[in-house]
Amino acid sequence: MAHWTDDFFTGYWSMMQKAAPMTGVAAEETCVLRKILRLRKGSRVADVPCGDGRISLELARAGCRVVGVDACERSVRRARRQFGKAGLQGTFHLGDMRDLRLPREFNAVINWWGSFGYFDEATNKRVLKGFADVLKPGGRVLIDQVNRERVLRQFRGKDVFRWGGVTVTTRNTWDAKRQRINGSWLFERGGRQERRRSSIRLYTPSEMRALMESAGLTVERICDGKTGLPFTRGSLRMSTVGRKPRAAPRS
């Protein structure tokens, strides 16, 4: 059965990722990420999904060894092209985060900018377990989502904005039973239209903590993903960092 992620990140969405509002903040975001995850020169980082590689690029510039995975072939090609133009080393794979085929050698896995919660409960848990499995002992996973409480307090059923030459109209509904925000998207540019849909499970801090623990990770911190400061009700984003134990617990 088709899933909404199969085509959402193609077409005009992919085009929008090249716009200045995205690329212009990548260096600032990456600086926060490096501090949160304590990344150093030489740290091995998996960026999943990596999109066009805007975060991967800044991590590589800081000396990290980056591997990116994304299900959108166009995005993977663009990421490789950007690295080639910048003269940087990085590896990018076309792949699905539900079936992450990477070696167990990473200091960190980054799931950035609301790229978690796409699937049903069991699959979301499996995705997180897959992230944990590719970490070295002591490695960290970072999951970034919007702050659910703030979204619901300031819920917008309809929004219209222009981004990268594309006019985007969204209509959102909240499914309280499944704890998901469902979106209907209309992209318009030059008289042409594309329609997409989305459905994302939003987690509370306590729910994300329980999910991390179910994947064998210890929650190290929950912070404001935009600033790296402690998470509050007013934070725009919620970044949860889970750490893999350095040694297996004794039975």
What's the pLDDT, averaged over the residues?
Answer: 94
Count of separate DSSP helical elements:
9
Task: Report the major sheet.
Answer: 7 strands, mixed
What is the helix content? 25-40%
**Which strand order spans the largest sheet, edge to edge or round the barrel?**
3-2-1-4-5-11-10
Q: Helices and strands: which structural class? A: alpha/beta
Gross morphology: globular
Low-confidence runs (pLDDT<50, min 5 residues)?
A: none
The tally of strands reads 11
Which percent band covers the strand fraction?
A: 25-35%
Q: Compute the CA-based radius of gyration.
A: 18 Å
Q: Which series of helices and strands comes N to C?
A: HHHHEHEHEEHEHEEEEHEE
Calculate the terminal CA-CA distance, rounded to whole Å. 41 Å
Plain-language structure description:
The protein is of the alpha/beta class and 251 residues long. The protein has helices spanning 5-8, 11-16, 20-23, 26-37, 54-61, 73-86, 121-133, 148-153, 205-214, and strands spanning 44-47, 65-70, 91-94, 106-111, 135-146, 158-163, 166-175, 180-189, 192-201, 218-224, 237-243. Strand 4, helix 7 (121-133) and strand 5 form a beta-alpha-beta unit. Helix 4 (26-37) crosses helix 5 (54-61).
